[in-house]
Write a structure and sequence with these properties.
This protein is mainly α. The protein has twelve helices and no strands. The termini are far apart.
Length: 245
């Protein structure tokens, strides 16, 4: 009986040391999602992107690379290299945030349009979730159950932008942007719920994925229903008019 219980617990446990291999799938998704608008341009000679696109792509690529390498290093007992990359993440994370802000500012082009504040919820969503999860991972870096889940959650944030572009570009026609977006967030929610179901018997750290789901729901509702506030609109205007790109 005792052996049966242990076996069942093992079946529902997420193998964090193998998560790096799963994130290779994220690389494939990113390539598929951004192929028409970014990667393909380098092959047909139309790649005329600004520095901000390349900087953002580089920071995101480095973070995904770290998510792939770190669990493998743990599995291979290369703990000193794992810790070194962990320390380097203290530099990479601010650079990643900077790349998101600069790219969005460049895309805005100094134009303060109606609904600008509400449109920024998508970018803020990613920054808030990654920031919170990274902060949790650092705080609980000596608790593998919480640390690993939080780092996995930072990678989950990359799924929505890549998947949305793939769905919009390959599944739905251009005029069906809303159904495509709803399909994308539905798939992200399904992933998080699946992880929560897998985690239901775990005693430590299983609150991570529910927290991510709650944050997603809050920001998606703010964006979809164009909910804003005077203070946030004022901030959006101030950001758009900053001479930083």
């Amino acid at each position: 009986m005792k052996e049966s219980i242990i076996k069942n617990n093992r079946q529902t446990k997420i193998r964090f040391e193998k998560s790096g291999y799963y994130f290779i799938g994220l690389v494939v998704m990113v390539i598929l999602g951004f192929w028409p608008s970014y990667f393909s341009k380098f092959f047909n000679g139309t790649a005329n992107f600004s520095f901000y696109f390349h900087f953002h792509a580089l920071m995101m690529s480095l973070w995904i690379l770290a998510l792939i390498i770190q669990p493998i290093l743990i599995r291979k007992k290369k703990l000193s290299i794992h810790r070194l990359i962990g320390k380097l993440s203290h530099v990479l994370m601010p650079l990643l945030f900077t790349s998101v802000i600069l790219l969005k500012h460049y895309q805005i082009g100094g134009q303060v349009t109606e609904g600008l504040g509400a449109s920024l919820w998508l970018q803020l969503k990613d920054l808030v979730i990654i920031g919170i999860m990274y902060g949790i991972a650092i705080k609980y870096r000596h608790n593998i159950q919480i640390h690993a889940r939080a780092m996995i959650a930072t990678g989950i944030v990359f799924i929505e932008p890549a998947l949305a572009r793939f769905v919009i570009g390959s599944v739905f026609p251009d005029e069906y942007m809303l159904p495509a977006f709803l399909t994308t967030i539905g798939l992200v929610y399904a992933l998080l719920i699946a992880l929560m179901i897998m985690e239901r018997k775990q005693k430590s750290g299983r609150w991570i994925f529910p927290l991510v789901l709650i944050l997603y729901i809050i920001f998606h509702n703010l964006y979809l229903f164009k909910i804003s506030a005077p203070a946030w609109d004022a901030f959006a205007k101030w950001l758009a008019e900053l001479p930083i790109t």
